[in-house]
Task: inverse folding
């Protein structure tokens, strides 16, 4: 029985077999080129680069998809809630006062025609200890009586400044260069809420020559005083009171009110906002005043797609301005447009009497009256005509704004104009 050859436990360590082990024979190891390890290193680096590129592409794709989803989710014509509503109880208050503007360059009131200017000046001087004689009638040319108006904004506190407007109530020609003396401004309840004083700024200009010719741009008997009044008393506000807050729509619309309530409920939970009617939305908020301020600011920043405006045609009869909304439609109708022109000309004739007749030369009036009717233009509107078609048809016949007003009024009376006609 032959003995089996002795085998080594790790043959590949010696022979460098197919498992890729390193050969222990120095001569054989030196004779073999080192290609396989280099190829394996290059392939691993290439695969790492490919994986990194795929990772970057995947991240960019996910980012673009996220941006696309956000863009699709946002409303097409979204407005901020703050641009659509006003908070109930947060309002401005009107102030009014009476005062004197002095320092005018001879353009003040004529005191003979405005005695209240002199009386006001005498009362003011008495407060400074100066008594004007009873028989004295000062003829002032550098003072003017004015009415002062201002708007007290909500949440205005004592010490803050507001703008005021002054307007002459006498016959002053100009308030340029004038100085308003300290004047109290009162509210509707009779209390003083601000004190006005300062230099009057005039936006107009006027000039007059020695011959009496004059030119004027804008008005020079009224002006403004920027930051001309100091607030002395604040108006109590119901903003900090407990209870629901009311958001009043600037333009009442049922669709807009419902969408505002939906937007608030979507963010803060169902039942937070309730549309009371087409002009107001009731919102429930925190009881603490500081938290209510931050919470209301967040609500006003929400985006809402307002409802479509009503179909409306606005006509200004004084200026001839016509504004047609985008949703105005016209049913099938035919319109004839033509004008009647009346021409009256005067050609006086001279009547000369015969010689030695004793008559007198006289001028005899002679009138020539003609009536001409322009060529009538007729155009037809199809059913459901849009704004562009209306404007194009009216422009083709050369209708003036006054003619357009007549055409629109006639269409409304005929029932073909499906819009609200507003004349201002």
Result:
């Amino acid at each position: 029985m032959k003995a089996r050859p002795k085998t080594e436990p790790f043959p590949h360590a010696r022979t460098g077999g197919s498992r890729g082990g390193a050969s222990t024979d120095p001569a054989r190891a030196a004779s073999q080129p080192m290609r396989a390890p280099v190829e394996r290193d290059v392939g691993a680096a290439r695969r790492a680069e490919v994986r990194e590129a795929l990772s970057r592409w995947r991240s960019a794709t996910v980012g673009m998809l996220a941006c696309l989803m956000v863009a699709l989710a946002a409303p097409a014509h979204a407005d901020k809630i703050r641009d659509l509503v006003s908070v109930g109880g947060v309002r401005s208050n009107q102030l009014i006062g009476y005062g004197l503007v002095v320092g005018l360059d001879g353009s003040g009131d004529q005191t003979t025609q405005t005695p209240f200017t002199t009386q006001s000046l005498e009362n003011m001087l008495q407060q400074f200890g100066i008594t004007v004689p009873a028989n004295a009638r000062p003829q002032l040319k550098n003072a003017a009586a004015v009415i002062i108006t201002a708007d007290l904004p909500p949440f205005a506190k004592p010490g803050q400044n507001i703008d005021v407007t002054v307007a002459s109530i006498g016959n002053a020609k100009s308030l340029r260069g004038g100085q308003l003396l300290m004047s109290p401004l009162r509210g509707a309840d009779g209390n003083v809420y601000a004190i006005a004083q300062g230099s009057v700024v005039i936006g107009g200009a006027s000039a007059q020559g020695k011959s009496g010719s004059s030119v004027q741009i804008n008005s020079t008997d009224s002006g403004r005083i920027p930051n001309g009044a100091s607030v002395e008393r604040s108006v109590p506000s119901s903003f900090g009171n407990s209870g629901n807050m009311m958001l009043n729509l600037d333009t009442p619309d049922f669709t807009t009110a419902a969408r505002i309530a939906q937007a608030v409920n979507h963010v803060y939970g169902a039942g937070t906002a309730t549309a009371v009617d087409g002009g107001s939305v009731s919102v429930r908020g925190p009881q603490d005043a500081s938290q209510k301020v931050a919470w209301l600011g967040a609500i006003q920043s929400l985006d809402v797609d307002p409802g479509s405006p009503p179909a409306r045609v606005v006509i200004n009869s004084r200026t001839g301005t016509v504004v047609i909304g985008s949703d105005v439609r016209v049913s099938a109708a035919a319109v004839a447009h033509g004008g009647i022109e009346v021409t009256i000309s005067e050609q006086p004739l001279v009547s000369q009497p015969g010689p030695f007749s004793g008559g007198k030369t006289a001028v005899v009036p002679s009138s020539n009256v003609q009536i001409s009717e322009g060529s009538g233009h007729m155009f037809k509107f199809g059913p459901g005509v849009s704004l562009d078609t209306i404007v194009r048809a009216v422009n083709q016949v050369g209708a003036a704004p006054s003619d357009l007003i007549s055409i629109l009024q006639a269409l409304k009376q005929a029932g073909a104009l499906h819009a609200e006609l507003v004349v201002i």
Observations:
- Confidence is low (pLDDT under 50) at residues 1-40, 65-76.
- Helices lie at 11-15, 26-31, 35-73, 115-127, 254-268, 289-300, 387-396, 401-414.
